[in-house]
Write a structure and sequence with these properties.
- This protein has one domain: Growth Hormone, Chain: A.
- The protein has about 425 residues and is mostly helical.
- The protein starts with 5 loop residues before the first helix and ends in an 18-residue tail after the last helix.
- It contains 13 helices and no strands.
Length: about 425
């Protein structure tokens, strides 16, 4: 019989408390990103209607694109820094950066300054998600890392819903949305400073390897190259699908002959499916294996996206297909991140996850652009869904190339269940 001393109990309670703060603060950080990445789309109609700063539709497109470019650069850049300087400091700094420049957006005196502020805010924003996912994974046992990634990403959709609801209330007073986000970011950064612990896996890795710089080229070494290429391609395809669908689904549905209210409702159904899929995908992946689950998720995505190209006479059937599309498409992308957190050791995990997120963000820019071109050409339906289905096939093939082995993860990197 094992005796638990008061000292052991105190240590376990302290560890549980630190893990709880990590889970809460990382989830909220991802929620802030979901809020931010939807906020611009929510206010663009108002900006154009009021001709704010003389803004045109072309200006709005440029601003939206630069925001995503900033996010991509931030995601790629933060990885090596997080592996060198620590997860905690990089996350707090990233939150402060995007919060400051988000507060300045309503004060922009020109369209160019508006775009620059959004670009710089994007740099901080892009760094938040990979660092949050890394910290979450490193505070969980290895057999729960898929769950850690998918549950963390539910914060993204929660943030998107909050933005949508607030946007309906503030209408023309769109500046309030940015002020709320900026102030909330500063508050969270303050709490993180006092309550967010550094990753123990990172500390152990630093004690082992010292403080040398971890370059991106580390991922190009034979031990990681095959996994790296597969992850980058899968992440690119996954985020192309996520952003392409979120941007154009209502229009594609409308082009298919569905009335506008039905078409818009499908976006809500899609994202509800996304939340369910994230929870379900994490549990299945931890039980059945991350690679196999991700393959299955991309395979079902191919079928669901192809089904959407068919005009359905039943609203119930349409809701079911769109819901299942959200279940599998959105979580397939996040399962790729889960693979990264499980495959790579702590010494390069931040760099690997940052590169996957950053390269994937390129897909988030390409997806809406290609789909928009198809819509402009008058062939959005059904070719938009044919295009998405083909992208899911490429995602499936990329995951198929990933090695299953996890020998790269050292035993000391696996935290015990407390």
């Amino acid at each position: 019989m094992t005796t638990v001393t008061p000292s052991d109990a105190s240590t376990q309670a302290g560890t549980a408390g630190r893990n709880a703060w990590t889970v809460i603060l990382c989830w909220i950080t991802v929620m802030l990103e979901g809020y931010d990445l939807v906020v611009l789309g929510a206010i663009i109609p108002t900006l154009l209607k009021t001709h704010h700063l003389g803004m045109t539709a072309g200006d709005a497109t440029t601003i939206a694109t630069l925001s995503l470019v900033g996010v991509a650069i931030g995601a790629v850049s933060v990885g090596p820094l997080a592996d060198r300087l620590g997860r905690r400091h990089l996350l707090i700094g990233s939150v402060l950066l995007f919060s400051l420049f988000t507060l300045l957006v309503p004060l922009a005196g020109s369209v160019a300054m508006f775009a620059v502020l959004r670009l710089i805010a994007g740099l901080g924003l892009g760094a938040c998600m990979p660092v949050s996912l890394t910290m979450m994974a490193e505070h969980m046992p290895a057999d729960r890392r898929a769950r850690a990634s998918t549950l963390t990403m539910t914060g993204y959709h929660t943030g998107a819903v909050i933005t949508s609801l607030l946007a309906l209330r503030v209408t023309d007073n769109w500046q309030i949305l940015f002020y709320i986000l900026g102030i909330a970011g500063f508050v969270i950064a303050g709490i993180q400073w006092f309550r967010l612990p550094e990753s123990e896996a990172f500390v152990r890795a630093k004690q082992t390897s010292g403080s040398q710089r971890v370059p991106f080229t580390e991922l190009l070494k034979p031990a990681y190259l095959r996994a790296g290429i597969g992850v980058w391609v899968a992440s690119f395809m996954g985020l192309l699908l996520v952003y392409g669908l979120n941007t154009w689904l209502p229009k594609l549905m409308n082009d298919a002959g569905y009335p506008v209210p039905t078409a818009v409702t499908q976006l809500l159904v899609l994202n509800i499916g996304g939340v369910v899929g994230l929870v379900l995908g994490g549990f299945v992946a931890d039980r059945r294996g991350i690679k196999g689950t991700t393959l299955g998720w991309f395979a079902v995505s191919v079928v669901m996206l192809a089904c959407l190209s068919i005009k359905m006479n039943s609203d119930i059937l349409l809701d079911v297909v769109v819901f299942l599309t959200g279940v599998f498409v959105f979580s397939a992308q996040v399962l790729v991140y889960a693979y990264v957190t499980n495959f790579y050791p702590a010494s390069v995990r931040g760099t690997a996850l940052g590169s996957a997120s950053g390269i994937g963000r390129i897909g988030s820019i390409v997806g809406p652009s290609i789909t928009g071109a198809l819509v402009a050409a008058g062939i959005g339906h059904p070719w938009g869904f044919y295009f998405f289905s083909a992208v899911a096939v490429l995602g499936f093939l990329a995951v198929l190339t990933l090695p299953r082995r996890t020998e790269n993860t050292p035993a000391e990197d696996v935290q015990p269940v407390t």
